[in-house]
Amino acid sequence: MTSVVTFHPQAKADPGPVLPEAFADLAPWVAHWSIRTEKGRAEKRVSTPIELLREFHAAVSPRLEAMFQYFNTLPNDPDALAPPDARLYGLAQMVLEASAPIDLQWDTPDIEDVFPLQRMKFHPPSI
Questions:
Q1: What is the tens place of the pLDDT at every residue in 14-30?
Q2: What is the pTM of this model?
Q3: CA-based, 20 to 30 A from 36: which of 81, 82, 106, 123?
Q4: Can you give the residue ranges of every domain in the chain?
Q5: How far are the Cα atoms of 16, 108, 116 from residue 47, in angstroms, in the given order?
Q6: What are φ and ψ of residue 49, in 5° steps?
């Protein structure tokens, strides 16, 4: 990854680790990719060059199975997660969002003739 790492705003308020210890190697991705809202993830996907989506996906998607196993040990309520777990959850959600254009081998992060993202309404709890 070539960008400068800045920590997610939540990380500054939490003196603990950015991510759970088993996933500490993914910490450089948190600042720009751990997005907790559906709208935020959709906006990130369509506004990010496909090359960067591919880089992120290649780095994080191999860890999804381990993430799912870890999440199965936690309460089934994303709002109740400790900050490091919440950041990991946001990272997992974002890699799943990024998977569509990668898995479908698109040349861009979005398709030109789809319903515009700006006209979509996101409703709770996914806002």
A1: 557 899 999 999 999 99
A2: 0.78
A3: 106
A4: 27-110
A5: 31, 10, 12
A6: -55, 145
